[in-house]
From TrEMBL:
Superkingdom: Eukaryota
GO molecular function, one term: ATP binding
Name by which UniProt lists this protein: Rhodanese domain-containing protein
Domain Rhodanese: 267-362
GO biological process annotation, one example: tRNA wobble position uridine thiolation
Location(s) in or outside the cell: Cytoplasm, Cytosol
Pfam family, one: ThiF
Lineage summary: Eukaryota, Fungi, Dikarya, Basidiomycota, Agaricomycotina
GO cellular component: cytosol
Amino acid sequence: MEGFGLSGQLNLQQASVIVVGAGGLGCPALQYLAAAGVGRLGIIDHDVVETSNLQRQILHNEQTVGMYKTESAALAIKRINSRIQVDIITEPLSSLNAANHLQNYDIILDCTDNAPTRYLLSDTAVALGKPLVSGAAQRFYGQMCVYNIGSDGLCYRCLFPKPPTQSETCEETGILGAVTGVIGNLQALEAIKIITGLHDNESNMIVFSALAPTPFRTIKLGKKDPTCAACGKEGEKWCGGPAPDWEQQGLADGGPGSRISAREVGRIQPMQVIDVRPRTEFGICHLPQSRNVPLEDLITNPSAYLPEDNNVETYIVCRLGNDSQMAAKALKELNKDSDNRVIKDVIGGLRAWSRHVDANFPVY
Ligand SMILES: [Zn+2]
């Protein structure tokens, strides 16, 4: 193929990729990496195959139910390409073993479904200086991003400095199998681009929504954050030593300007900010103090989202300022009798926010 050639194929043969998670994302990623001829593939997973996995974990099948996912996936990709080396690691990944397991591979694929492992993989990728191709999928939505690429590529912690207090996995919220197929394939594609020198070394997040008229969107993420605790200048201090306790840091007092006095708070009208975008988009970026109520949830049961106190003003925001109008209308309909409540939508949405208020807020 023009633009790829024999050199591209030889690069693939000499490359190694470690795939963490042999589930909905890991299976399609491994399938395409094996078929493309990546010379050495590692698979990390400690779960066994269950029947309920089969709608999305397409390397496994009815005959391998009960088998470790690592073994089942290895069998399947060996059937595709018997010439590649496949290493399996059937144990949970932890901060004690991550660097050891990941250090012998060129690229790390995050195909897991929980927040603590995302932070662990990101911090380990930074410490080892390796690109991390990260995927996530829930319900009809997915996202994919390459972290720690090139000399100034950002890491997961640059984007999400504080780990969430609780995490949802697709076991709880459900997922359409073909959606994980889309994201897992994109992860394989990014890995192949990096190996063959076709990647532009930019960190862009691809956001996928199966039901949207334009299902793919790209968000430019920019460069690494110099104040990032993992990859910024300060962070480099702890790469060789023990990592800070993130939870403790989250509970500690902020620096100057990060807190507000009671008197100052008194001058601000009591208000709630509702962000009606899908959860995936809210997870990528949102205004401080805003709460996420996806549009369909709000429309289904608007009365649940009116504040009890009439004096609390409600502001609704979305990406461009269209969905927020529908949400504001639904709340106002409920509120016909008393016109003293303030319910407003933000004109131009978050796009206008980043243009006029905060230039650092991501545009997409
Ligand atoms: Zn960082």
